[in-house]
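Q: Can I see a sequence and its folded structure?
A: Here is a first one.
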Amino acid sequence: MRLFVDTADLEEITKAVGWGVISGVTTNPTLIARAGQDHETQVKRICELVGDVSAETVTEKRDDLVVEGRRLASWHKNVIVKVTSTPEGIAAAKVLAGEGIRINVTLCFTVNQALLAAAVGAYFISPFVGRLDDIGEDGIAVVRGIVDAYRQQNIKTKVLSASLRHPMHVTQSALAGADIATMPFKVLEQMYKHPLTDQGIERFMADYRRTQEPQALKR
């Protein structure tokens, strides 16, 4: 399973890329606004740092979405155009995918929405795990259902598990068969952490320092 970060913060992205573990970024208007940058400028900067970069459309009608999607795709070869799981968004995705533009159908909450996205040639489908959990539904079960349906139907659209709130969501996404998991930077950081790791490092370093004490006395 590939790992993405869900952010528009260049400092976070640069750090994550430096760790060598991520291969993409997902953004949306909220994250761009939080970064305090112009949409086009920030997306282009991100595309210079990492591979697949999802940039979200903000119009609502099919024809407007097609025009906007073409514009987003023209910014950089790494851009994947995000459209929502609506009739207008899916219709626009059909046109854009037909032109060779990679599409991420977002705000997906059911297997049926995922099947509609696949029918028009979406590159990614993004089920929102955390938002489903927020309303008492099982977000990971939806991811698992999409993966199962795609495999049974030999569908090539990749399942991008989104709206991940904690490291367990990442683990569960992997076990459910998701192709990609995208998460806030803080969740990526938390994936590294375990108290036994910290305790082990502390003990190893203490033991190492003790081995150096006789050498210091000889000098």
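Q: Show me another, different protein.
A: A second, unrelated one:
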Amino acid sequence: MNHKWLEWAINLQSIAQAGLTYGESQYDIDRYIQIRNISVEIMHEYTGVSHEKIRDLFASETGYQTPKVDIRASVFKDNKILMVREKTDGGWSLPGGWADVNTTVRESAARECLEEAGAYVKPRRIIAIHLADRNYSFPYPYSIYKIFVECELIDNCFAENTETIEAGFFGLDSLPILSSERNTREQIEMCFEAKKHLTFETVFD
């Protein structure tokens, strides 16, 4: 990811959030608010995303800033991988989403599979932990750890839900159009490679 402006905006946001958390004088707090506003303005200028959405996703947290966590499940049947079609962009992705608070990685992977694909699974192992902005061309406005979890399929029956349109199993040579914000072909290839091995060393940045 070569968007230097995005790196600067994220750094400004992180500095501002830490300052708003630990700053003591009103003078300092006012300056940190200005820094945060500048970071939002940079994001808006280069992405076209509304100020309101950027503030909601990028500049609404409190406390010391840490990466968000996105869980993606790798589930196979007959050497084909489970994918879901996203309502937001019509692309396909591995079942997954933001980890909930007070929820383990295992619980999050199982929940996402059930909610998005109607699949009951048993999480088995972590395949990889990727920092999103080093693996995607999409300009994420915050740091994200993407955790890929290999799961054993128990049963599946897709049900209508608020996030996905349909679910299906695909071979590596017949992958559908991907939801590029959520997963890359290289990451799916990685999941296929991991599935070949009884033991697989976790990949992480």
